[in-house]
Each structure stands twice: as C-alpha cells, then as structure tokens.
Amino acid sequence: MQIQVDIERYKRQVLIETIGKHGQQKLFNARVLVCGAGGLGGPALAYLTAAGIGNIGLCDFDVVESSNLNRQILYNYADIKKQKAPVAKKRLEKFNPDVKVEIYSEKLIEKNANDIFKNYDVVIDAVDNFQSRYLINAAAYETSVPLICGAVCEFEGILTAIIPKENTSCFQCIYPEKPSAEFTSKTFGILGAIAGVIGSMQALEAIKLILGMHCLKNKILIFNGAENTYRIRTISKRKDCPICI
Predict the structure, then answer these.
(1) How far is residue 222's CA from residue 219's CA, in Å, rounded to a whole number?
(2) Taking the CA of residue 96 as centre, how many other CA atoms within 13 Å lie in the half-sphere pointing to its CB?
C-alpha cells in the first residue's frame, strides 16, 4: 500500500538519495520484530519508530524494575512493576501515530517462536541472556527471517547480521559453547550509553536490510566505548554448527 501519512515527517530521510520516497514506502510497509524491550530494545524500537517502520512487533514478558532505569529509556519511575510491553507500545505509538505496534507479552519458547517470527521481515535480538539468543537464532534460521544480533557488557558491545536465505554464519557459529544459564545482564555491569549505541545500530542494520543495502553478514562489529574504537572481524561458518549447516 502507498504511504497514507504526512510525508513531511520523514522529509529529512526522503532527501537521502538511497532512500527517497520509494525507500520510505518500503520502510512503511516493513514488519520488524524486536525481541526484548530493555537496554538494547529501547533505542532500537525508538529509532525504528522514528524512521517510520509501519509495523513493529515487540516481544517482552518482563516487568520494569528500578535497576533497569540506567539504560532502558522507554520507562520511568512510575512504570516500576508494570509490564514492559504495554508501556513501550503506548510510548512508541504516541511518539509516532503512523506506526502500528503489536505486543507479545509472553516468554519466547520453541513452541511459539516460529509462529511469531514468520510474520516479520526482520527480527532484532535485543535480549539479555544466552539461552534466549540461541532460541532466537534457531527460530530465525527455521523461518528464514534475517536476524540482527546485538549484545553489550560493561563498555563493550557487538553487532552482527544473520541472513538465513543466504546461508550466512549464525550466532552459534560465533558462540558454539553455551554459557551457564546464570550468565545474564543481571550478573555483569552495563553502561547505559553503550546499550544505546548498539541498540541504535541494530535499528540501522534493520533499516539497511529493508532498503537492500550492505549489512554486517558474515561479519561482527566490536565496539569499545572506553577507547572509542570499532573493529570488524570476518565470521566463518562452523562445519559442526547444529543450526546453519
């Protein structure tokens, strides 16, 4: 369908030669799912909404805690103990009424992940634990949906794009050994601004994928915020990977 909104809102994007009105139409027609509405998911959701992604899915079953507020920009003190997904939906749709946000206030498990993923063009992994990351990675490959992975710890962050239809390397190629289930964001420090950087870059990668631009497939970007450095490493598929072989 054609854009039925005031294009003036997206004027500065439309002025970009590689976007234009045609690209903006692509963004408005796109469907992007964000798994996790926390430190990474918040900025990713905010910039997807600002860009005019017409249909956004938000999957998060958690509630807001006071310890979230140093990095989870969609919430404030009044939201503590409330479910994140409904609060985030309300904020995002108020920020940009052109965008429709569908929420899934349930935990992602093998039984429901494929059914949710198959309705989207791109999935963003913005969760805070390895168990969920492996599940999301497997579901993305099973449904052939492109996946943007981001993660942060202290002053560092990583970013990569996984394109199942092109048989790229996957998350489990990078991290073949599953860490302990206790290894989550609750067990190590995170600077909020680092999550903001990586979450924003996840939104950027999703936008570029929708527009058919170059993305970080078979590569991983490593950001060190303490030193202000970026490194990009090539990722090779593992011959023994149980997901993408």
Answers:
(1) 10
(2) 24
pTM exceeds 0.85, yes or no: yes
Three-state SS for 6-59 is CHHHHHHHHCCCCCHHHHHHHHHHCEEEEECCCCCHHHHHHHHHHHCCCEEEEE
What distance in Å separates the CA atoms of residue 58 and residue 145, rounded to the nearest whole number? 16
Helix (H, G, I), strand (E, B), or coil: what is residue 227? coil
- Smallest Cα–Cα separation from 27: which of 149, 166, 130, 121? 121
Per-residue pLDDT of the chain (245 residues; tens, 9 = 90+): 555 566 789 999 999 999 999 999 999 999 999 999 999 999 999 999 999 999 999 999 999 999 999 999 999 999 999 999 999 999 999 999 999 999 999 899 989 999 999 999 999 999 999 999 999 999 999 999 999 999 999 999 999 999 999 999 999 999 988 776 665 656 778 999 999 999 999 999 999 999 999 999 999 999 999 999 999 999 999 989 999 87
Which domains occur in the chain, in start order? 7-234 (3.40.50.720)
- Angle, nearest 10°, between helix axes 84-95 and 41-51? 30
Helix (H, G, I), strand (E, B) or coil at 100: strand
